[in-house]
Structures are given as C-alpha cells and as structure tokens.
Amino acid sequence: MAKASATKPGSDEGPEGFRVARGIAAGRHPLLDVFPGLDSLPLAKRLEPNARKRARLFRATCVEVVDQDMWMYVAPTEVPEFSRGRWKPVVSPDSDCIVVGKSHLDESPAIMLFMDIYHELCHVRQRQGGANLWEPGVSYVKRWTEIEAYRLVIEEARTLGVSDDFLREYLKVEWISEKEHRELLAEMKVPDR
C-alpha cells in the first residue's frame, strides 16, 4: 500500500514519458487509460523482464478511481479480516485492480504517482505469484512484499535524483509508528536526517 502526501521533491515531474490522466472520472478504467505509456518506461522492464508477461500485466490490470481523499492500494479479492469494521476496501475478486483516490490522482506530484503506481504493480505481481499482501501478524515494515515494492521504487527514485527529504516523507506512512518509520528508512538506506 502506498500513500499520498503533499511533500514535493525538487520538481513535481516524474521521469520522461510518464503521463497521468488527471481529471479522469471516478470508476474503473484500464491501467493504461489512467497512466498512458506506463508499460513502455524503463521501470516496466525491471518490474517484469518477460515481455509477454509484462504486456499481460499492463493490459489486464485496471485502476478504480474513487472519490475519496486517499492513497493507492491493490484491491483485495475479499475483505481482509483485520479491516472488518475499521476500513471498507474496494474488493475485486475477479481481476487485478489498483484503487486510487481521485484527489491523489488529480493533485499529487507526478513523481509520487510514478512511485506509487509501480509500488502497487509490484504488489500485483507478488499476488499473482501467490503472495498474501495482507499477511496477518506481520508488521507492515517487516513484510517482504512491502520491502520489495518500496525497494523497487526507492532505487528508481534515486536514479531520477529524488532527494532524501522527499524519500523520508514518502516512507512516513500514517499507519506505522515513528520506530517503524526509522526501521523502514534503514531498510531502504535512506538517512534518518
């Protein structure tokens, strides 16, 4: 699960070729309608080296834009036990779907949306490989699925010149403690100031 934030790096821009269909209506859309050309960026090949599997991943995954002030997450196939009564996620039992808040899509810096969408696509691939993204009893910052997804986007952000200040804020997700935030920073090799 990746989060939204108003913090910006030195530039709002994502990498060359990254586009976002800001202002798209709430509802379910093909991934490449919301993020045109996402499948042709260099990170797409790192995410899935096999061209056939990569094409299927980008063609079959959809995005559900919800009229809420929220981040992005992969829609579970059923409501996770831990969320009952606390959170009502969009559920997608028959297809891979990334849920994104409309305000996040419309207002967040492009670099953040770039990192978030690839973070979530990494989770889609993990789930397709049999991973439990909602593993009960394991701290968010200790889940191998989160570590792998964050590592993918943090490494790419570094090649793009994203500042440590931005990365520190990006990794400060609202559902973890300060101690867990420091653990995540250490795991991602982002200095804690």
What does this structure look like?
With 193 residues, the protein is α+β, with helices and mostly antiparallel strands. It has one domain. It contains eight helices and four strands; from the N terminus they run βαααβββααααα. Helix 5 runs antiparallel to helix 6. The longest helix is centred in the middle third of the chain and has 19 residues. The protein is globular, with a radius of gyration of 16 Å. The protein starts with 26 loop residues before the first strand and ends in a 6-residue tail after the last helix.
Layout of helices and strands:
Blueprint: E1 27-30, H1 31-34, H2 42-47, H3 51-60, E2 62-66, E3 72-74, E4 97-101, H4 102-107, H5 110-128, H6 144-159, H7 164-170, H8 178-187
Parallel strand pairs: 2-4
Antiparallel strand pairs: 1-2, 3-4
Helix pairs in contact: 5-6
Could you spell the SSE succession in H and E letters? Answer: EHHHEEEHHHHH
Task: Note the main sheet.
Answer: 4 strands, mixed
Which percent band covers the strand fraction? 5-15%
- Overall pLDDT, averaged? 90
> How are the strands ordered across the major sheet?
1-2-4-3
Note the gap between the termini. Answer: 24 Å
